[in-house]
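Fig. S4 source data, part A: sequence.
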Amino acid sequence: MRITLDTNVLVSAFISKQGQPAAILDIILTFPEIELVLSEPILNEFRDVLSRQVVRERFDYSAREIDQFVNAIRNASTIVNVKSNFKVVSEDPKDDIVINTSCDGKVDYTVTGDSHLQKLKHFKGIRIVKPRSMLNIIRRRFGEFIIPKREFE
């Protein structure tokens, strides 16, 4: 199973260690059957968001810690060189990079909290889902031994 996580899911995973995005990231990093597929533009946005003063102050992240977070995610991911240039998110064209990363990475799922992307539901055979839906998909596919249902409801 190949998955792209939108920047908002990555950021949420680092801000709230108990939430659904953190559970997804933890599962991806634990099970080799699930591959995280990202691109440098997504990683750059992840770094930019974590580097915002309000985020750094609220969560007490240093620049060094942010670099470590980004590098850890990069090392745990398959990084694709984005060549596609689909323009499908007219409400927020910056979100097109997530779609293009997903397409070029030939992923099965894109996980996002972004309503503009969620409205698409599917794009070129890729399912676009919320974090809760992704946890349900993983549980159904790999069984409750990975995620007890009670942990994300």
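Fig. S4 source data, part B ends here. The helical segments are 7-15, 20-30, 40-51, 53-59, 63-75, 96-104, 115-118, 131-142.
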